Each structure stands twice: as C-alpha cells, then as structure tokens.
C-alpha cells in the first residue's frame, strides 16, 4: 500500500518547494498530483520534473474543491492524501497511518491545535482547526463535493457525509507541522477579490441550507469565526508565556 498525494495550488506559499522535495523522497508516496490552478505562475523548480509528480494544468482556476474532486478521480492509489500547498510536516504520519486507514472508516484529518510529542488518533464528531489542511482516507470514503461548493466547506462536506454513512472520522494528533496559515486564501489573488467575497457568501448560504442551524448545528459562519479566534487566542497565550519565561 502507498499514497497518492493531491495538492491544488496557485503557487503562493514560499515553502511549497520544500514540501514537494520531502514528498517525492518518501518511499510510501507513489505520486504527487499537482492541480495547477495558475499555470502562468508555474515555477521552474527542478523537483517538478521528478517522475513521481503529475501536474494537471488547468486553463483557469477551477478552485480547491473541484481540484480535490479531479485529483481523487485521477489518483492511482487506494490511499489518498488531500494536502494544502502551505504546510510542511513530519511525513512519518504516512508510516503511522498505513495500517490504520480503511474503507470502513471516514476521514483522518490533522489536529493543528494538538502539540502532543507522539502520534495518535482520536475519533471525533466535529472537525477541529486544521482538519482540512491534511486529510487522509481510503478511496471508498471519498464522496465528490457538490459543484455549488468551490472554495469552502469541502472538508466539512467529506466529514459530515461520512458520519451520515455511519463511518467514524478521526483527528491525527501529534503531527509536527509548520504552516503558512491560509497563505493562498489570504493573498491578494483570493481574499481581496469581489469574486471570492461573492463565492464565500453564496457557499455559506448553500451550506447552511444543507445543514439547517439548530441546537447541535451552529451556523457555518459562526463556527468558522469561533475556530479562527480560538487559534488567535492560543497564539497570544503562547507569545505571553514566552515573554514571561
């Protein structure tokens, strides 16, 4: 067993070349599918000529969720990892998960809030911060994300639909990682465009129609805001602790 890695990109993060070098060198990685959503910006890195890399150039930006759908459809391996282009991490997680991921389970996603010294899994009923940055699953656990969701809620969709099928989702704890947080989503290419603001509004409304708010179902815009502020609070506490020591 080995992995197909799927990475949609607009070539924004500075650390992506380091990420690709590490992935192509890992013996459990059979292929790295780069969904190239900004072909004109493709760098001339030597690693892009590695035989493990398959670059799927797009005529225009098809956005992250359609890129995931495309990458999974093209992947050759049964085990698949959807990976952000802005994260570098300890690749021993692939060895750890190799005999744990199965077609009977759902999605295994990164727990970015956890700083445990060793890798472990925890079953969860709601995804945590960073879950969608690194998701591993068996091909049979993937359900194509609806066309109406292009940039948001793809990870929420995979998480919730696997739960509705009786499949358990897990967070991966203890993964050492270094992430340029939302490097692409917060860049001028995305965050400041009128197109992005419209998509965010339309997709949030669509998601809340799929999942009507109730006592156990917080509206999506509130849930995302809560996670964002929790991460900021965590960083502030870490900063203040460092200054006092």
SSE layout:
Blueprint: E1 3-9, H1 16-25, E2 29-36, E3 53-57, H2 64-74, E4 79-83, E5 87-89, H3 92-97, E6 108-110, E7 120-124, E8 134-138, H4 154-164, E9 169-173, E10 177-179, H5 194-210, H6 220-244
Parallel strand pairs: 1-2, 1-4, 2-3, 6-9
Antiparallel strand pairs: 4-8, 5-10, 6-8, 7-9
Structure description:
The model is unreliable at 218-222 (pLDDT under 50). The chain has a single domain, classed as Spore Coat Polysaccharide Biosynthesis Protein SpsA, Chain A, CATH 3.90.550.10. With 245 residues, the protein is an alpha/beta fold. The chain has helices at 16-25, 64-74, 92-97, 154-164, 194-210, 220-244; strands spanning 3-9, 29-36, 53-57, 79-83, 87-89, 108-110, 120-124, 134-138, 169-173, 177-179. It contains six helices and ten strands. The relative contact order is 0.15.
Features:
33% helix, eight-stranded mixed sheet, 245 residues, 10 strands, globular, Spore Coat Polysaccharide Biosynthesis Protein SpsA, Chain A, single chain, alpha/beta
In a few lines, what is going on in this structure?
By secondary structure, the chain is an alpha/beta fold.
Shape: globular
Largest sheet: 8 strands, mixed
Could you say which structural class the secondary elements and strand pairing correspond to? alpha/beta
Query: What does the average pLDDT come to?
Result: 88
Q: And the CATH topology? A: Spore Coat Polysaccharide Biosynthesis Protein SpsA, Chain A
The CATH superfamily name is Spore Coat Polysaccharide Biosynthesis Protein SpsA, Chain A
Named at the architecture level, the CATH assignment is Alpha-Beta Complex
End-to-end separation in angstroms reads: 46 Å
H-E string: EHEEHEEHEEEHEEHH
Supply the number of helical segments: 6
Radius of gyration: 18 Å
Oligomer: single chain
Number of domains: 1
Strands, total number: 10
Weakly predicted, low-confidence segments: 218-222
Give, in spatial order, the strands making up the sheet with the most strands.
3-2-1-4-8-6-9-7
Strand content: 15-25%
CATH class designation: Alpha Beta
Give the helix level as a range of percent: 25-40%
């Amino acid at each position: 067993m080995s992995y197909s890695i799927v990475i949609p990109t607009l070539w924004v993060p500075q650390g992506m070349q380091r990420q690709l070098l590490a992935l192509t060198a890992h013996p459990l990685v059979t292929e790295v599918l780069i969904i190239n959503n900004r072909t004109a910006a493709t760098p001339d890195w030597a690693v892009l000529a590695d035989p493990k890399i398959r670059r799927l150039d797009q005529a225009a930006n098809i956005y992250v969720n359609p890129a995931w759908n495309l990458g999974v459809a093209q992947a050759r391996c049964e085990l698949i990892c959807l990976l952000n282009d802005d994260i570098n991490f300890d690749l021993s997680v692939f060895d750890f998960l190799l005999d744990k991921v199965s077609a009977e389970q759902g999605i295994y996603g990164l727990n970015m809030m956890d700083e445990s010294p060793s890798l472990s899994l925890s079953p969860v009923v709601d995804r945590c911060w960073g879950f969608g940055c690194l998701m591993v699953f068996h091909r049979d656990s993937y359900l194509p994300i609806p066309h109406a969701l292009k940039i948001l809620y793809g990870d929420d969709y995979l998480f919730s639909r696997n739960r509705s099928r009786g499949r358990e989702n897990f967070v991966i704890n203890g993964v050492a990682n270094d992430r340029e947080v939302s490097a692409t989503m917060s860049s001028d290419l995305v965050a400041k465009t009128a197109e992005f603001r419209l998509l965010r509004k339309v997709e949030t409304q669509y998601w809340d129609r799929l999942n009507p708010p109730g006592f156990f179902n917080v509206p999506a815009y509130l849930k995302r805001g809560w996670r964002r502020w929790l991460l900021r609070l965590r960083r502030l506490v870490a900063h203040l602790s460092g200054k006092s020591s």
